[in-house]
Amino acid sequence: AAIPAATAQTYVPIAADVGHTLVVQETARNEGGTGSAASSAHTAVVQQAPASATFGKTSVGASADRFLADRKRVNRYALPTAGTLSKLSIYLAPTGTSGQQLLEGVVYADSSGAPGALLGVSEALTFKSTNTAGWYDLVFPAALKLSPGSYWIGAITGASSNVAGFRYDSVAASRAYNANTFNSGASDPFGSASVDAEQTSLYGTYAPGSSSPSVEHLEYVFPSNGIDVYDMDNGQKLVKTISLPKAATDIRGAAASPSTHMLYVSYGGDGGTNGGGTILAYDLLSETIAWTHAYPEGVDSMAIAPDGKTIYLPVGEASSSSSWDVVEAASGTILTTIQGGLAPHNTIVSLNGQHVYMGGREASYLTVADTSTNQLIKQIGPLLPGGVRPFTIKGGDTRLHDGDRLPRLPGKQYHYGESALHGAGLGSVPVHRRPGRTELAEPRDLTVSR
Known about the structure:
The structure is a single chain. 0% of the residues lie in helices and 50% in strands. It is built from no helices and 35 strands. A hairpin with a 4-residue loop joins strand 29 and strand 30 (375-380). The chain is elongated.
């Protein structure tokens, strides 16, 4: 049955959901009408969440060491579920050196197996030589909202050395550390690090399932050999950097599937004399490369179906062909091809998944295929000289936003920067194109059922 209050962009399960699965149903709408409802797969059965949980090393290590001054050191652990991290706890012991030593807890994002962006710093703890051995809390001034994934947790120490001792077990390549003046604050990002085998007795305490009361907005930027991820709600702060293979110096396109949590990146040659290219599939949850696949004919700006199962890959604007490869997203295998416009370049799949729009760099028309048959069903145009440039389609398949390549129709009135779309079976449809504005999202109605 539908949950009456569950109509916002996010939903946090409540006690009544325990023992049930959940299904999200989404309906897109705009001035062109309302689309068909799309339903997600059932979630796992909702379980009663514990009040708090831990991740990290909760046991007291067999070996002892001492904290040196002005150094930060972290260990990598996996957070199995979303949660709000309130504190770190570390096992400390006096060493026989008199005095006191300052410590702060630190949390860093994982960047391809190394500590990357700084996520949080705790309040300072003063450990005195007269303190007893035991667990000490490093409490954050504001709880950190974390998504599932790997994080580096640890401590930065003040100007005194050897006052605070700690315990550890020997685990190969488990710790990263570097010099960092305490008074300067923990660096962001972590910086170049040395690696050793000291897995420190330190863990985090978090409240499961409470990390996402609102939507996160992340921007993915694709320089050579990497992906920089920025938090759009936090001053475009760099969250992490994902390393790509050395060959990924010329990124052609990217597409993501929320339903499968996969990100696909095309790079390399865009056909013709520029040669072939590659697609890389990256799992955003496990932060691992799922597969890479070479495409000798070339690659360019692809698109993926809403169900995450099919990729539509243009063979490149430098190609003399008109081919789009229909690719199985789970493996990268080419299933068939579609003949679209000359010099295949840009691609959009409609919100309902029924149509794929194909823009050729040297084409006179934007071509449209039915995704159920992979057959062409219409052409939109003719276009102005220069072919199709970057474009997008509104959610109801009613408007096309293109790079000034659409002709104006006689007898129509336009606002500044506005054009019209005329295509077989579509009639005349206004196309709004104003400088400095891009419409990428449609209103959506959401319901959650148990």
